[in-house]
Structure formats: C-alpha cells, structure tokens
Amino acid sequence: MKQQQGFTLIELVVVIVILGILAAVAVPKFVDLSDEAEAAALQGVVGAMNSAMSINYAGCAVKGHTPEANKCVAVDNCDDVGSVMQGGVPSGYTLTAGAIGANNGDTANCTVTQTSTTNTATFQGIRAGT
Predict the structure, then answer these.
(1) What is the DSSP letter of 96?
(2) Cβ neighbourhood burial of 72 (10 Å; 0-12, 13-18, 19+)
(3) How many CB atoms lie within 10 A of CB 42?
(4) Runs of H (alpha helix) within the chain
(5) Is the pLDDT of residue 1 over 70?
(6) What are the alphabetically sorted keywords of the record (predicted)?
(7) How many helices (H) and strands (E) are present in the chain, helices listed first?
(8) Are 116 and 92 spatial neighbours (Cβ–Cβ below 8 Å)?
(9) What's the whole-model pTM score?
(10) How far apart are CA 51 and CA 35, in angstroms?
(11) pLDDT per residue over 27-77, tens digit each?
(12) How far is CA 94 from CA 111, 115, 116, 119, 120, in A?
C-alpha cells in the first residue's frame, strides 16, 4: 500500500481560517500605536524640559556661578527653556509663555503643545540666575 503525503484540503482551509482570525485580532492593535507613540514622545520632551530647568537652576544656585560667568542661563519665563536645552525646543512643539515668580527658585507650571496632535503637557519652570 502506498503512503500518502501532504495535507488534505480541509486541513489547509482550517489553517487559513485560523490565520485570518489571528490577523483580524492583531492588526488593529498595531495600527493604533501611532497615538501612543505621539503621547510618549510628548512625555519624553516634557521630561527633558523638566531636567533642563532643574540642571540650569542647580548651576545657578552654586555659589559664584552667575549668568555672567557662563555657568547658567537666566530664566524668568516658561519659554526660556529653549535656551537651557541643548539644541533648543525640538521642532513640532510650542511653548506657552508665562512668567516664573519673582525670586530665584520660584516655580510655575509651563505648558508645551505638540503641534501635530495639539496634545499638551506641563513641566515645572524654575526661575534661575535673575
């Protein structure tokens, strides 16, 4: 008796149906990741702005380090964050100007907007070197 090799038509159809169901479930999950990626990018920029403000304030707070000595940058407005970040504010993001207190170390919540989505987030502006 000769042995058969290969799959039957029913087995092939069952495999194709299973693959179709898996594709129908998985594709929407991957297609919708762009919104999450944009939100994560905004949070990354906000984190960088928080860090830049904190590092600049620390540089200004060290005794003898003044804007004149090029150890820190004077910051008194939210939109000054571009001058303390290496490379400035990334393209695709805008800042809402707003005064930051009257004394060194005063803080204010500053708003950054992602222009491609109009999503917003806040970071803490710290007055320094003024």
Answers:
(1) -
(2) buried
(3) 20
(4) 9-31, 33-61, 81-84
(5) no
(6) Membrane, Transmembrane, Transmembrane helix
(7) 3, 3
(8) yes
(9) 0.74
(10) 25
(11) 877 777 888 889 999 999 999 999 999 999 988 888 666 666 667 888 999
(12) 9, 7, 11, 11, 9
**Separation between Cα atoms, residue 108 and residue 76, nearest integer Å:** 10
**Structure-token pair, residue 39:** 């939100």
pLDDT for residue 115: 94
Both tokens of 13, joined, read: 């159809």
Here the tokens at position 4 are 């058969």
For 82-105, the pLDDT digits (tens) are 999 989 999 999 999 999 999 989
Question: For residues 61 and 65, what is the distance between their CA atoms, to the nearest angstrom?
Answer: 7
- Rounded to whole angstroms, how far apart are CA atoms 39 and 47? 12
Which tokens in the block code for residue 68? 């004149």
* Amino acid (one-letter) located at 39: A
Token pair for 54:
């904190």
Give the helix ranges, DSSP H, for 32-99.
33-61, 81-84
- List the one residue out of 102, 56, 100 whose CA is nearest residue 82: 56
